[in-house]
Amino acid sequence: MPASARNWILACLPAGVVALVISLVAWASSSPLKKTEPIPVLQNEDSLNRTVDQVDQFFTQEWEERELVPAAVADELTQMRRLSLALHGTIPSLEEIREFQAMSGGDRLERWTLKLLDDRRFADYFSERFTRAFVGVAQGQFIVFRRDRFKAWLSEQIQANTPYDELVRKLIAGEGLWTGDPETNFITAAVADGNLDRNKLTGSTVRAFLGQRIDCAQCHDHPFDHWKQTDFEGLTAFYGQVEVQVLGVRQNKKLKYEVEDRNTLETRTVAPQVPFLNECLPEEGTLRERLATWVTHPDNRRFERASANRIWGLLFGVPYIDPVDDLPAPTDLTQEAPDLLDILGQDFRENGYDIKRLIQIIVASKPFQRSSTTDMVDAEEIQRATRAWALFPLVRLRPEQIIGSMLQSSSLKTIDQNSNLFMRARRFFSEIDFVREYGDLGSDELNDFPGTIPQALLRMNGQFARDNGSASPFNSVGRITSLDISNDKRIETCFLVCLSRPPTEVELTHFLKQYESASNQKQREKVTEDLFWALYNSPEFSWNH
Amino acid sequence: MFEFPLFSQSLSRRDLCKVALGGTLSFMLPGFDLQAAQKRGPERRKSVITLWMGGGPSQLETWDPHPGTQIGGPGKAISTVVPGLQISDMYPLLAEQLGGMSVIRSMVSKEGDHERGTKYLKTGYRPEPTTVYPALGAIITHEAPDKGLEIPQHISMGNTQFPARGGYLGAHLDAFRVPDPGKNIGNMRSGVGDPRQERRLENLNVVSQAFRRGRTIQTQKTLHQSTIDRALTMMSSEQLQAFEIEKEPAAVRAAYGDSPFGRGCLVARRLVEQGVHSIEVNLNGWDSHANNYTGHQTQSKILDPAFATLLKELKERDLLDSTIVLCIGEFGRTPKINPLDGRDHWPSGFSCIVGGGGLKGDTIIGETDPTGKEKDPTEPVRIQDLYATILQKLQIDFTKELISPIGRPLALSDGTPIDKLV
Hints:
Chain A is mainly alpha-helical.
């Protein structure tokens, strides 16, 4: 081989290696985990439909009694946007809208719901929501608490459709190392300053799973509820034998739960006891296993009602009963008719605590389908209708939903687990940065507060808006500008991509004028950018409606 | 259809915003009070500047030195202009400027964790899972909103992990954050020229109009438009100049020190002049579990010139009487020096400097035990007592109860004003 050829080979070798690595990574990351699922065929679920009817009847009766005329049914694209925001934390892509539009049949929204629930994005999005409810947003003490593992574990459980009661039992009674058995992070999240805060565990257990706040009773008898300090101590005693040590979360039968009496300042041992439904507490098992069984016992109606209220809250952005973790005591069903949470809760219990099924029921029932527009002009009337779910509420999107939507709208194709690594990494990092700058709502995310000035500034002038809203050959602003389509079509596409709806006549006329006065490609690009800017900053973009 | 009345004429940014505000909620916006910057002395509404020492500074290497004792470490003490007050010799500039200020050496807290401690110290309430308490600045803004301001009334400068929050009073009362003061204030420029910004706002109006149809009242309630309006007002406000320090004489900038904290203190003075009432300037880096003494030397080189110059300038400009300055962190450090030459968290018996705004000056409150054995100092002062004192001086009724979202009545502060300071 001549020397010059050898030199060439040597010179090309590094480049060749780099190229090989790049293509391998690209191949590995872009190869879909699985091809897009075919849209599921709806099983003829009579029992599910019966519950939907029951829910609908409940509301029909409510509305009649309160003399409310429910809002009209929202159009399908609006409902589709609601579904995507609720289940994936983003708006639908143009690709998805087109796919949906190509479907036929009166039940296409129901089938679309199933498709969204099967998508990995659902498990990922809901696991973050649940993580917030269970352990909050704090990163905690890194050495013993791994929030990322916890969230990934929850995502696996949701994807596998683990019955919710089973999932909760694992959280309360789990044992092992926080890395290998990530469910135990529910326990280690309560470690502060090297100590396990058992009171915190009691508070979050009761709030997250039973929808009750008994935290006040930690120090004194609850001021306006029937919780006593002894109730709190008795419940906390179930966590009395849990230990966090090198080998992970363990039960130590030798431990006794002791508290310092506030009056006498003497320590006394507290025996584990539940504040109600003593008959649901099993004799067998470790203390935490017994507590877990009691919390999720089929007769403990607080469990199913709290679950239904939380899921409702995640779908609408507002819980059915607000706040999400402070529900009234269940009524006696032999005396009183079931309320909404009883109806949903019963179906949940009788069908294996199936989260996906519960979601299907809620989104198929009347309230989720109401329009958010009304002819009513009286503020009080509107509020009354909204509170009775006869009018779909306007709810501010969570920061993740806003950045998720912004990123999705900058791509014409769906950004999901099948997207290339670059897209997914961009989504991952943008979300973290944006949420931090926008202001994280923390675990309090079902409380509605108005937006802030920095948020408006961030949407108008921030880097994220600039990146996603400036034309490039790879993003939708650039693509829509350069596509060989009519200006009408161009405007329609922008609206579908950002707001999941076609433009109104007025909007179409307004933007057509701008496109028509743009004489070259560069000017057209600016018109599209300015149109996108307006869509990003419109209330319609950052509110669920 | 909505039409812009002045569309074809050329407009300044300010005019443009006024036009953009037309037809929305502009009538709710206050008139512009351009006089705030001129006001001095008793006619000026009071402000609070909190110098936040993130990480928990050692009381022994700052305002409560015990030279020559076992707990004192290698540090020495110097006298200050306040009779009888000695502080660490790492603060020679500050020692000259402390006249009229007071030192509390007996702050007591029960929170030894950074996050919990910070929350307690910034709100006056110990953190609990079901209630997010509002920070002092949010309370001030909520109780005494300033109609003349086009810029936020509650501002936090410098990076911080736990910025002051609006808590249950609402996210709109969160501190407006300026991570790198004196440099830029983020997202304040529209990024396009005026004609395009004009077109963008016009587009936004068209799209918003469409959404409002059938949702007039609901959209009003979202405050979406009014938030955008206020953001636009801020973008074009003359008051934004308070954040700019280029025009300050080089000597002044140098005196504060060219650090984010130094610049933040200079901006804080400018904000006070502009009429902003609650400002926080953050200085992190006090978590001295190892090499405590050298760590404090590094920190003091940032804090000493900035704090001293701030006090000096406030006095020179007749602003200290109407500005409370508080320098505090989330807790102090242990009297015991650990094997890494560090000091660990110590929430009982730490120090702060407070004064101005009509508080009694030249006062020293509390003493810590020179042997370090007694856990609680004499004359212990709880965090809520400090806040009750400050709120009272601001003429805010701290006993006033607000109803938290869960229907629980909560006083603005459940402390008692400190006699020696009011």
